[in-house]
Design goal:
This protein has a 4-stranded parallel beta sheet with strand order 1-4-2-3, covered by helices on one side. It has 5 helices and 4 strands. The longest helix has 13 residues, at about 60-75. By secondary structure, it is α/β, with parallel strands linked by helices. It has helices spanning about 30-35, 50-55, 60-75, 75-85, 105-115, and strands spanning about 5, 20, 40, 90-95. About 40% of the residues lie in helices and about 15% in strands. It has one domain. InterPro entries: YeaO-like.
């Protein structure tokens, strides 16, 4: 039981539990049937300005985490996600499309929820 991370281009499995897409845009080339998400929380994604500034640059990731954390303080969908995670009896998988599996918003979301739950 817990929070898992998975790219949108990986196959959905039963072990994923509840699947939540945390990107503002739908992943390219993936049908709804293949993605098999339970919730699409597009407003939880980083702001357009923050996303453009970060541009998936690993050297900016620490600063990105700080700035994204500030955005999440005032984000209603982030509050909803924390509630979903706390009520879920099984796994919750945060689904994202980024190619970089070590520097993306899903990692930040997981870290924050794990530290505050």
């Amino acid at each position: 039981m817990g929070i898992k991370l998975k790219r949108a281009y990986e196959v959905a499995t039963k072990e994923d539990g509840m699947r939540v897409l945390v990107d503002r845009l739908w992943p390219r080339g993936v049908s709804k049937e293949l993605l098999k998400i339970d919730y699409w929380m597009k407003d939880i994604a980083p702001s357009k300005e923050l996303r453009k500034w970060f541009n998936h640059d690993p050297e900016k990731f620490d600063e990105f985490k700080q700035k994204y954390n500030v955005e999440l303080r005032y984000n209603n969908q982030f509050k909803e996600l924390k509630e979903l995670v706390s009520k879920q009896k099984g796994n919750v998988t945060l689904v994202y499309a980024a190619k970089d599996e070590e520097h993306n918003q899903a990692i930040v979301l997981k870290e924050i929820i794990d530290n505050k739950n």
